[in-house]
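FIELD: query
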Amino acid sequence: MLPLGIEVIERGWLSSNNILLCDGDEATLIDSGYVSHAAQTVELVRTALGGRRLARLINTHSHSDHIGGNAAVKEAFGCRIGVPEGMAPAIENWDEEALLLSVADQQGAPFGLDHTLAVGERLMMGGLEWQALPAPGHDMDALVFHSADARVLISGDALWRDGFGILFAEVIGSGGGLEAAQATLEAIARLPVDRVIPGHGAPFVEVDEALAAAFARLRYFQQDGARMARNAIRACLTFMLLEQRRVPLDTLPAYLEAVPLYREANRRFLGLSADALAGWLVGELVRAGVARREADFLCAT
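FIELD: result
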């Protein structure tokens, strides 16, 4: 059970969770989902507000499924927007490469930035004091928010019940993601935490089990970078299918070669032809039950 004043609007994998923290007649929202779900996000937040004023929206990190609704939420509610200070230049310049939009063939809507959040900063949300802590790995500028008094962690994509987000820095070649994720998990393990509110999935209390699963997953990637690349390719293509709903099978090899993330992950770790990569990927997604073949299309299930 979460403390009073915190409501989690649990979403799917195309949009991150939206976390509403209420203080009297005002509220703070953490993360806003994907741009194609922006209208839905606005309505879900409006209902959850129950007549309160949305004073601010803050982001855990810069990925499309967490910032995609920012512009629509700001337009609907007139709130201020704050982001981790490390991602501010990419937002201010709307650098689609730095934001991984062009790199992963994802969409986003530019938004106005009102302030930044520094590592170590303390803020009141939901009647509790929270501290912004660094959480590099999945996103090198990410923050998590920890309430020592309530022993709650808002973890973004740094820790899920069954793992953590893609280590993009490793997959696309900038490096440092494995070491950063290790340091982040070790730092989280030292915190007094009884409940975690992740960026995807339901809040959970099995903190030790989640950390054990995350460390095991990290070791699995450290042992063989190809595993990390395959995970990234599967996850990002699944994300694309969730957005597009279906893709012609005969266009998939060219698509995988054209999109930087797939091309670089394959080049750096797998070394497959575009046709072989597409064939492997279709088989993987169908076996996992996240996609199915329909005539000449690969469709989201």
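FIELD: remark
The first strand starts at residue 6 and ends at 9.
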